[in-house]
Amino acid sequence: MRESDNKRFAKHIGVAANVFDWPSVTLELPPGQERRPEAVASFVLAANLLKRLFSKLSLIANDVPLGPNPWHLSSLRELPNALNGLSEGDVTWGEPASSDIVLGIGAPPQHNAASKSYVTFNGWLSGLEKDVGTDHPGIFGALFAACYGVSQTFLHAAIASGAGYRLIEPFALSLLTYDFSGTNAPTPGTVDFEVSHLVGIGAVGSAFVYALSHLSSSTGVLQLIDNDCIDEPNLQRYILMRNKDVEQKKTDVAKEALRASGLKGISHPISFAQFQEHFGYHVNLLITPVDSEAGRRKLATCLPKFVLNAATGNTNVTISRHGFANGEACLHCLYLPDIEEVTTEMRLAADMGLTVHEVEQHLLANAPVSEDLVHRVEEHLLVEKGKFKDWVGKHIQSFYQRAICGEAQINTPTGTIVSPLSFISATAGVLLAVEFVKFRSPALSSFMLSNYFRVDTLYTPNPAFNQRKPQDPTHRCICWDQDYIETYRTKYPQQPTSDSSFARP
Fold it and tell me: How do residues 59-70 score in pLDDT, each as one tens digit?
């Protein structure tokens, strides 16, 4: 976060010290955990997320070599330099004299602090302040645990600042079944991801790539499709990106992050419509962490064979899996607006003084905003002309992102603060990577998400939100349209569209 953001947050929470500034936060890798590669990766992710939230961060760990990682660091001791500059303050290496909050990775921390928390992990199991064992290696339980550890750390700070929240209750979640059954399985040694398409490398998409970059023996091709570059404000939520990536193409940064994973990323800095014009309209698996409901509906009309989707809204994360006209909700069904629903596009248009149509057109094309549009927004907001001149030529998501997309409202006694909360989009990206691995791993096919799962990242995950959503009952969705159905059947003649089965590709 930048200084201007910190001032904005302080204004909203109404306290003398910013909730992200006052606590001295320590992250600890307890002795012995450095021998677990997944613990080291969890420590790195937690440090990454904490640095994007707090200005006082200390790291306690023994220096060890690093395995595959998105920044291609060779040892843990390189982490402070890699993180510095992502927020105010510096990252310090070594035990501080005192701490307000300490988070332990893999085991309870030994460092003393006013508030303590820890996370554990075991293959596909993630634990918050609960032991889940260590008999299964694997990266994904560790990455998910890091996200929730940072969420708990944030809650410690927010509660101490007067926010009306409680700490997350201890849990041990299986990422295979999204329940507390303790279900675990070996992580596949090699995953063939075949040819898959990622559309959108924003906060969630970059976290998805970040998670996949830890794999060392995967194969396949990931088509990286996004026509945007990285803006400086993106660094609050884009956990893959650092200062050196500003103004770089998102697809190029993602490609470089995957270099050591075995999964070949191919950079396409163009829109999905342009991609289809060049490369055709058959897509076996479309991964869609895009920013808007209208964008997802537009992608659904392109009729990919299968879809993996992830989204954030306030503090919630949604992950879903879709076929088409098979009795279960398709991607279009899931984002079909209610007749009186206020969509993201409608909210954005109202707040900026634009029409819904032009907002939708900018979002669908990922088009940069013109000087005239920026001036109209300035007039609508009653600010001096030229206040937003630096945003001319930027994409509308970047122009508006500080008020939407991955931000969370935290209620305090004095009102509401708006906070980037980087762990929310990170959680979505990790879960998207989990489902991607399940989808492409025959040994894990029985654990593929039925259709839909949602978590609120400030609360204990609730297995009741692992649901099978039905096809739109109002018949307003494209999956009831015979023209769309016939087109889908023509493109993928072996894929059923007449029953509720969800066959593997």
Answer: 999 999 999 999
